[in-house]
Design brief:
The complex is a heterodimer of chains A (88) and B (483). In chain A, 31% of the residues lie in helices and 0% in strands. Chain A is an all-alpha fold. Chain A contains 2 helices and no strands. In chain B, strands 1-2 form a two-stranded antiparallel ribbon. The chains are: A mainly alpha (88), B mainly alpha (483). The interface between A and B is medium-sized, with 21 and 40 residues.
Chain lengths: 88, 483
């Protein structure tokens, strides 16, 4: 039990020694952040030219439709052949 | 009178028997003397004694052995082809058929090469059949067809015209009614082929005019209705197409059914933008043809390996056929009407009859040979006829499936166009056009009858629909604005 308490205390002292940062000259540096900061977007000004159109629009184009190759009779060659096969 | 008849039959039988005995003697002597032309003489004697199928056996042997070829033998070959059909010599090799200066054998060679799609060889063989020959009309017909299929249209036309003239002469000279009818069919076939040639060259009006030369009484007429409908369709006369095709629904034409006609009707409605009619026909096609296809498939699959089933079925008495699906019965009728089939069937029955007489002859080496040869020929003819019926059935079932695919394509196209209408917020000018006489196009020599739900024999093939094209699109927004 005694050993355990001793190990915890030693570890605590070592960690707190590392937590304090040092600069190049060896002085300790403490960093502090602002607790509250606000931006007024309405007062911000951007310099430049407006190149986007005034409103959004899509140019209408006709839909391209591809028709299927429907059945078409080009000739009656199979029937010509059949007629001869059915002769005499 | 009755006695006279008996005496005549007895004399005829004894004469025929005497000739048969003579043929047998020639066979024995020819074998002894090793006479190289013995087979030709035996064939002559057998022909004289009316044993035609037996004569074919010896005539073929003479041809195979490559012996002397006399004008008498050429006459015999010609007669045998006429009496027993082209099939008797069709099996001979091409080099044998080419070997002799015989127009009859050249005719068979031409037919053989045509069936193997060797059109140049077929034309070369058929050129050697002179116009004075008995097979000349058919030879010119076949020659014209071979030229037509080789895209030599001018030469083909020349041959078809010759065929028409020759067939007409033979028709006029024939005293036998069946022969007259046969040459009429050959003549009409040449006219139809000319029309088909015009169609192939996209002269649809010319084709329509040529088809008009076929009278309604012709055997070929029901078959060309669809070709006429196609020609009308190609000219954009969809109402005439529909009118021609409605003829197939006449009670007089129940045994004629063509799945292609249904596709063409559906296409015509489609071109008139009568999509609902087109879709209705497609559904009807599936409802009607699916049971037909199942019935046919059932018979075909169960008996596809049989060499006799289909012939027996076709020759069975009507009572037995009544059990069959009416569609299969009608298909049988359609097959029976084919010229080739009816001629082959007549020859088959003649061969059967001859075999009966051969079996009655006193047994000897000679008669055994005849028996074996005629039995073989008969078995081959049975298989051939059976195969013919089976093939017709298979090709019909294939047609049904092929056209079912085409119908599906039309359906897809209609659905795609309907979707486009919705996307574009448009609609067709009206949902259903009404018929009107104003929409009928016809030439001065075309008849026209209104179809009132009844078929009259003299009106068949003269109908035309009067449907107005529904293809004009209208903007739905504009309609709403005008309301």
């Amino acid at each position: 039990m005694r050993y355990t308490i001793a190990i915890i205390i030693t570890a605590f002292i070592t960690l707190s020694a590392f937590a304090q940062g040092k600069n190049k000259s060896g002085k300790n540096v403490v960093i502090k952040y602002k607790k509250y900061e606000s931006f007024d977007l309405g007062n911000l000004e951007i310099e430049g030219k407006i190149i986007a159109p005034g409103d959004l629009s899509v140019k209408e184009r006709s839909r391209r439709t591809f028709s299927r190759a429907l059945f078409e009779r080009e000739q009656f060659d199979p029937e010509v052949r059949n007629d001869i096969q059915n002769l005499r | 009178m009755k006695n006279l008849m008996i005496i005549f039959i007895a004399l005829y039988t004894s004469q025929s028997y005497a000739l048969m005995v003579k043929a047998e003697q020639m066979y024995i002597e020819g074998k002894k003397k090793k006479d190289k032309n013995a087979n030709a003489y035996i064939a002559q004697e057998l022909y004289k004694s009316k044993y035609h199928y037996s004569a074919v056996v010896f005539a073929k042997e003479h041809l195979i052995e490559g012996k002397e070829f006399t004008p008498e033998f050429e006459n015999l070959i010609e007669e045998l082809v006429l009496k027993t059909g082209t099939m008797s010599f069709y099996g001979l090799k091409a080099n044998i058929l080419k070997r002799y200066p015989s127009p009859s054998l050249r005719f068979i060679l031409g037919l053989r090469q045509f069936n193997y799609k060797r059109y140049d060889e077929s034309i070369a063989a058929l050129k050697q059949v002179p116009d004075t020959h008995r097979f000349a009309p058919e030879a010119r017909f076949m020659q014209g067809s071979a030229l037509n299929l080789s895209n030599k249209f001018d030469e083909a036309k020349e041959q078809y015209l010759k065929c028409i003239d020759l067939a007409q002469n033979f028709e006029d000279q024939s005293e036998n009614e069946k022969l007259k009818r046969y040459f009429a069919i050959v003549r009409e076939s040449c006219v139809i082929h000319q029309a088909r040639m015009l169609y192939k060259n996209r002269d649809f009006d010319g084709a329509l005019k040529a088809y008009e030369a076929i009278p309604k009484t012709s055997y070929r007429w029901p078959y060309i209705l669809m070709e006429k409908a196609w020609a009308a369709y190609q000219t954009g006369n969809y109402n005439r197409t529909l009118g021609l095709l409605v003829t197939y629904r006449s009670p007089l034409m129940t045994s004629y059914f063509f799945p292609e006609a249904e596709v063409l009707s559906s296409l015509s409605y489609f071109r008139l933008c009568l999509w609902n009619d087109s879709l209705k026909l497609i559904d009807q096609y599936y409802n009607v043809y699916r049971p037909h296809s199942d019935a046919l498939k059932n018979i075909l699959l169960r008996n596809k390996n049989s060499h006799t089933y289909f012939l027996k079925l076709l020759l069975a008495p009507i009572k037995e056929k009544e059990k069959l699906n009416p569609f299969v019965r009608n298909l049988m009728t359609q097959i029976r009407k084919k010229i080739k089939f009816s001629l082959d069937l007549v020859n088959y029955k003649k061969a059967q009859n001859e075999l009966k007489y051969v079996k009655k002859l006193k047994r000897s080496e000679f008669t055994e040979k005849l028996d074996e040869a005629v039995t073989g020929a008969l078995a081959w003819r049975t298989k051939h006829l059976n195969h013919y019926i089976k093939k017709q059935m298979f090709s019909f079932i294939n047609d049904m499936h092929r056209f079912s695919y085409e119908m599906f394509n039309i359906k897809l196209e209609v659905m795609s166009l309907q979707r486009d209408l919705v996307y574009n917020n448009e609609s067709l000018i009206s949902d259903r056009s009404r018929g009107s006489h104003e929409n009928i196009q016809r030439t001065s020599d075309e008849h026209f009858y209104t179809f009132n739900g009844e078929f009259w024999a003299d009106e068949l093939g003269e109908y035309s629909f009067g449907l107005k094209s529904n293809c004009k699109r209208i903007d739905k927004k504009q309609i709403a604005a005008t309301k």
